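Note to self: user wants both folds in one dump. Writing first protein now.
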Amino acid sequence: MRKMMLATIMGLSLTFFGCNKATEKTSENEAHSHTEVSTPRGSGHDVDGWCVEHELPEKICSLCNSKVAAEFQKNGDWCKEHNCAESQCFTCDPSRKEKFVAQYEAQYGKKPPKP
């Protein structure tokens, strides 16, 4: 009887208080778009560590990750007009994309996925 009550209390506790992992995952996913809308992993957004949507390595995509964006802003590398890192602003300078495509090709031996 005592074990049954303990199991019930633990179950209810998890129901009410939950687990931080869901909260952490939501926070991570919220940073995956221009408008801060959730884009879950596995949806074609991140392939081989590549942000398909923005054509950049995922770990440095200033459009997907607000922490990364803050670092670029802190270092003075920010395009205010297009709201992304200046060094990643393909609108201002389309040739910048070539650098990232070359990095992907060198690492994976193939062209990056198209957006």
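First done. Writing the second protein, which came from a different request thread.
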Amino acid sequence: MIVRARAPLRLGLAGGGTDVSPYCDVYGGHVMNVTIDRYAYAIVGGREGNDCLFQALDVGHEEIHRCSHTVDTSGPLKLLKGVYARVSQDFLDGSQPPLSVKTFSDAPPGSGLGSSSTMVVALVQAFTEYFSLPLGEYEVAHLAYDIERKDLGLAGGKQDQYAAAFGGFNFMEFYAHNRVIVNPLRVKDWVWAELEASLVLYFTGVSRASADIIDQQSRNIGENNQGSIDAMHRLKLEAVQMKECILKGNLRGLERTLQAGWIAKKQTATCITNALIEEVETVAFENGARAAKVSGAGGGGFMMFICSPEERIGLTRALVARGGSVLDFHFTQQGATSWRVS
């Protein structure tokens, strides 16, 4: 039997960063995001013998692990091995069955679309299906967060895992002691279509390590940097405003909120923006963009712009002309899913 799973990548619309400790533990965090039809995939199947095969198909990495040995969760395949080790420990009484575990993604690491965390969710979903584990969306997301942040020691927040597990437009609340509330939004069809037609998603061509940016944000909060804390408070408030704009179909208000959130985001850490990002933003506003922000922690990856649908072609041409690429996408309602292939 082979199990396949996929989990959707997400666009962070507002509040990103307020889902990261220690801010969310002290003040509570609010995030507004939406998933798109670009995915991280995981494939789990049985294997003869006494070893496991781990493969990241899109980047060409491969490792063999002897099932009788402790799993080494370091290296480029740490996400795959980390999920395997945790599932073996928590659900299989420590036994390590011989398996083939493979992954690939529609977006590169460091894209700002939550690709690493989404991959962990896809892996957890695949193992949940393969071993018939009693895990729902909240449990899948929390386990993925625990593996990535605690077992593997990778810095980051919580929104990516919950977005990937639930799918759709969600307003999320994050509190101390890992308490998370996901509020799915019922978005009117015309708002869904208009926003989809108005967003341009542009890849700068530069991947970045979000952990460095997140570490700086966390240090600023831990050291009571008031400027950074005030900026985070504004990000949190703008997530609430973004939710209201989307539910009411106030697209002009949505544009203002997105832009205000980007301005506040740049004040939470010094490395969120750079000369490349500022240059791309200038080109975008000269060619019809009404609002802009980087998706994810910042520093590179994907940028998103809101424009009138009539301006979309011209904006796209201008962005492509300066380098990089534009990604076509649609919003998706479905979260992580898995299926069996005989």
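Dump finished. Worth passing along: The mean pLDDT is 91.
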